[in-house]
Amino acid sequence: MTSHVTHLWRILKWGRTLARHGALRGIERDVNTPAPVRRIARIARFGARVPQQARYAEAFQAIGPAAIKLGQMLATRPDLVGEEPAHDLLSLQDSLPPVPFAEIRAQVERSFGQPLEKLFTRFDEEAVGAASIAQVHRAVTAEGREVAVKVVRPGVEDRFARDIETYQWAAAHLEALGGEVARLRPRLVIENLKRWTARELDLRREAASASELSEAMAGVEGYFVPGIDWDRTSGRVMTLDWIDGTKISNRQALVEQGQDLKVIAARLVNTFLRQAIAEGYFHADMHQGNLFVTADGSIAAIDFGIMGRIDRKARQWLAEILYGLITGNYRRVAEIHFEAQYVPAHHDVAEFATALRAVGEPMRGKPVSELSVGQMLDGLFAITRDFDMQTQPHLLLLQKTMVMVEGVATMLDPSINMWDVSGPFVKEWLRDELGPEARAADAILGGTALLARLPSLLQRIDEAFPQKGGAPPLPPLPPVDLVWNQRRAGMKALSYGLVALVSAVVGAGVMVLLH
Fold this sequence. Notes:
Layout: H1 4-20, H2 25-29, H3 35-44, H4 56-63, H5 65-74, H6 78-81, H7 83-89, H8 101-112, H9 116-119, E1 120-123, E2 129-130, E3 134-141, E4 146-152, H10 156-176, H11 179-183, H12 186-201, H13 203-216, E5 223-224, E6 237-241, E7 246-247, H14 251-256, H15 261-279, E8 281-283, E9 291-293, E10 299-301, E11 307-309, H16 312-327, H17 330-339, H18 349-360, H19 373-386, H20 396-412, H21 418-434, H22 436-464, H23 483-514
């Protein structure tokens, strides 16, 4: 097990890197930062040349691969890191220099136990893309199939495991400090990061995700998922069809090709809604580098290492929330938040509805270009604080992807009205899912399932409450203080001061990581 000193040393080293990029300034200015943490942040930047403009993305890039993934996640959490850092982190690109081809060749040959030439008739030595976890090469299979081959960087699993262990340690100590930080649940943020990166590190799971998404979207016109070559796919190598298309970020090239950018932007929004709301399974890494436009205007997606799932009940709540915001039915939106237990029951539904109206009304009917993102975020964060709303980890991926999709759609069509584009789809889905026919079908299925479970339920009740035997019931026993419990309590009192001091220092170092 890694020692506390090692964890703390890593955090302080990363904090020094953040300081040199001016990324600790926000900690000192945040009123919610505990005083000991603020003092440690000042120590971390002592003697460092701090730029006038903080460069958060560059700082995380300099720290390393795991920090890049953490930074991309924190880009969707302005409530945790602040609006300015989150906006800067959106530009964080998961791009690193490729490893030498000799290492890639060895990785492929180890995975399949045969020479590279037996698997591929052509394998380009120069990578077409290299990120923190893997890099991609263009190739042609022995059967003449043109493919992209994704190969995990040698040794990257150990480095991620080491860094994420320290993130977990840091988040646990930070959350133990209590207050506003505890409400934001940093431990769950890091646990989600750990699960997501574990999926990305196993390319068999990524291949399975691509296959599942392809089946779910098979009937959707204008959306394409490349096929998987399962014979040339393993835990560290994935082979899939090569995509001939233009990166969706190359707006000028799309215009020159005569593509209708308004149609592509609307298609992107609606295909995402189809995945998230209708299927409950969505591509959760839909940034500009992972989306292409083919000659016929279809959107082709790549990189399926991060996928999101939402159960049916949560999707119904989500759809009703979106439709309520679109139509201005804030009362229903508030009720759903209470039904889903996103808001503690001791708050007032009507007051929450009024708070939502204050944020939602200024946005309704306006294109994205006319919205003040800062004003909207300030309003939403005030609501979460005032109504004691905790972070919902199962919705973090959805939030992250929604930010990405809106950004890409706005780049394609700056005048897009997200409410108008998404409204018809959400309305139709709600009609199908919450209409009389759907409710009747749910009641029948639920009743049938309950009847099927009834025999086992009665058996468990009988086992839990058997008939009384011949012996009389035992009398209640009074509690007795044990000697070793008292001794333990005394030791706890003696060590309390030392624990408090260490916690303050450790928590201060932890704040360096999350800001």
